[in-house]
Amino acid sequence: MKKIKFINLFLIISLSFLMLSSSLYSQSIARWGLPYIKNYYPYEYNGYSQNWDIAFDNTGILWLANGDGLMSFDGINWHKYFLPTNDAIACIVIDNDRIYVGSKNEFGYFLISNPKTYKYVSLTSKAKNLSFSNNYFLSTAKTNYGIYLSDNNSVVRLINDKVDVLFTNVKGNLINFNNLAFFYNPKTGLYLLSGSKLLYIKGNYPLNSQIFMFLPYTNDTLLIIDAAAGIYKGILNIDNISSPTLNIEEIDFPIEKELLQNNILDAKKSSDSYIFSTYFGGTYVYDLDFNLQYILNHSSQLISLTHNKIALDPNENIWLAMDYGIAKINTHNPFTLLSKVHGLTTSILDVIFFNNKLIAGGWTNLFVEEIDKSTNYFKKTSIDNICWQLKKIKFDKDSFVIVASSIGLYALDYKNNIIPIDTGNFRTINVTTSPTYFTATTENFFNIYHYKNKKFVKTLSIPLPVGITFSNINFKKSDSSYVHYISCDEPKIIKITTSNDLQEIQVLDLPTKKVFSSGYLLEKDQNSILVYSPDNIWRLNINNDQITLAEPALRNFYDSLHFINILKIFGDTIWLQTSSKQLPNKPIYLMMRDNGKYVTKKTLQLFHELEVLSIKKGPNDNILFSTDDGIFVLNQKKLFKKSAPLRLYATLNIDAQDTSYMITNYSLIDTTIKIPYPLNKLSIEWRTNLIEREMTNNIKFSFYLEGYDRDWSEWTTHHRREYYKLKPGNYTFHIKAIDENEQITTLVNIPLHINVPFYRTVVSYILYAILGILAIYAIVYFSNRLILRRNKLLEEYALTKNKEIIQKTLQLEKEKEKADKLLINILPVRVANELKETGKVEAEFYSSVSVIFTDFASFSQLSDQLDSELIVNNLDYIFGKFDEICVRNKLEKLKTIGDSHMSVGGMPIRNQTHAIDTALAALEMQQFIQKFYKVNPENERWKLRVGINTGEVVAGVVGKRKFAFDIWGDTVNTANRLQSTCESNKINISATTYELLKDFFEVEYRGEIPIKYKGPTPMYYLLRIKEEYSNDDEGYRPNKDFWDKYNTLVDYSNLINLDKWISS
After folding, report:
1. Residues 316 and 425 in one domain
2. What spatial distance separates the first Cα and last Cα of the chain, rounded to whole Å?
């Protein structure tokens, strides 16, 4: 009993130590940030949470061994394939058109002709004398001698449809290496599997070893992964096949003990790294010199800690099959990110490398890098305000980083001591040499500071004739004289010349009058200055102060939508980012100076659409980009790393006559695809072999159906084209792709032939003639027959009349049912029933409803400009959509008058959520109108105005011959006037409505606006759903938290009446 207790205590202590060590090292973060990580949750691929294996085929499709079955992903669509037993799949081996899989006491292969048609062939029954261990077949090895599978108790070889059982009831590990299969048994050693034979490999195996994996190391050596003893170097000699040997040597491998404690599950080698996935600690990534690069775990924002298998896509991005979901780590992307994971908890405005550390100036703090990996990567300093700019300066033996902040000027020494220099809102700083001093600007002054007797001294202060300053650069004029150029938010450049006995200030005007809150920015370019803003870019000649437009290569980045956001020059290299006034796209361009001209060499994209706030050079030739999300580090060694060749694949969905079929994965088609007539729809979908680049929209396509389209389409990220009712004849569908560097891939051509219909052939015309003769004969024959039947028809006349009377009676009953349905469509169900029963409807008082009016601004002018038929069609389409939106949001549509649409919430079924329902409906109408604009730019003339008011009304039916359900009251009039005082494409709400929905939506107070008969009335603009309750960036769709809060307002006693209303 004591022994058992001791063992239990030992296990608890060991497990606690393992969890503690994993927790401590979980904070280990890469020195230069993490690559882009994309998690795929089970709901995204519509499968089970646990994934056991992952692989790519030669067309770039991802295959996943999932708890539900086999899954595939082509970058666009997920598909699922089931075993007959509906059991989980544990391993995958791809061999040409076969997908071999292993499961619990089961193995076989899938034949998948297209995503909708597949066949599973079980090979289990062909395994003679195989003793099943009730385990999953988890291990695989693909060789020239066949496919080997193991459940750690038996090994079988699959070749075509044959199965060889090599051995059974033998514990050991199946190992795949260099297209060879090995088997390691702890008691007997290592074997080479050659066909159905086992060749023993002599070796100096470690005691109690558990060898389960080999990895390539050098040209003549390999890495041996031993779950018990560690990682070793091995020299495998199989030249003498009759007597192969393995010589094992120890190797120094970092944190080897931690890897073993975390239980290594899989390992891969790429062109520049070793990757180890574990059960407890995530995935460890080393470079080829065994330097740990980063750990992929919860701290790296992965959703699971147990990583069962690793796969590398054609660009060597890492894909992980995890116990919960899957993940893609975009190591091909040259960018990595230092962010909140590393301690950078605010927007970063500037960054600098000083004393072998990164110093980051943020919106709320100055951060200093900590090399100690057991703590957060960056630490906050005592400077807890806006740090606008950082500059390095060296005075003899003392070096500092000068920090320009919103409350003062500071110096950071090599011991991370903060030295106050001056107070004020310092926006810019710059450094001079020979003599050495630095300059700094506030909103009012240009200051010069020297370093004397270990102290900073302000030696000059010059008032500035401008407001906020943005850039500060200088040029050396002589040994004692400098010229400083300072920009601001106005179209002016301040030129200040300083020397020992002279200070001169001059204002240079830019050839524009625009003022920008983001300021005019300056960048030194050899002996001139580039001046840029959202308006244009100019070049300032420092020799004569002449300002001219910059070269066309730079001005080409400006048009009606785009402009240069930031620009940085390093010698002959220019980095710049463009922004758009309407679109989210913010690409980064690398340009090179070639014979005095700028040539674009590379187009890049950050992980997210962010504006770059500063660009600096870092160590190891890295480029540092400061953003709102942190610091993006660009590895220039990866920048021009060659990508995998881009290949195109097409899938055809053909819907013709009474048949539908699919043709998949066409890249080279030599034969013409023949399609029967009539063709209802031809749908062509295409993809490439590079999933990760398609998902980031870095690949664009152009297509052209020869014989139908006139020309190639514009470049687009769409993956699908549909054609309807194509005529018989010959066609060829052409598709080409272009990557982010405008490299066009091989053209794919798909020849098609739609057969001529039978009724247009010669045989059909002969048949027509024969049928004509037969028709004449039939007319004569049947005329005689008709005379003979005439008397019989007269006898049947009376019977027919009786039948007609019965039919008319039934028809009258059906018409009555239609009339009842029509009445329900015109009036609410309760009102319609009351009208049918009593012949009248009593007016009813409602204490609280929300009335919504919509119309279109300048509709009369629009009516004069557009064709009346087009106006009616558009109104019918728009109001039809508005009616659908009202139904979805529990509103009762009342009427339309001209271009005005009126509906009401909270009646006829009273509820407490009518104000929120009308707000959701208004936002959905607004979103629909935005989509309506995108269909045709001409549609932007239809400018929607919405007014919402909440209050009491009286409802009833007016008219006797033509019934109309309507409401009356001051609430209705006010809602109408709110709409009429609303700006285009806005939603104007009253104060009473605002009080009911302010907890759910963001609004903007307009102030008190005078309206007819009421005077000044407080109004608000409804902007969007609050961010915490929104499921999208625009704030149109509510999330789960929204509905949870919404449901607290629902009066469940009215649900029965509400269900009746909805069903009606």
Report:
1. no
2. 73
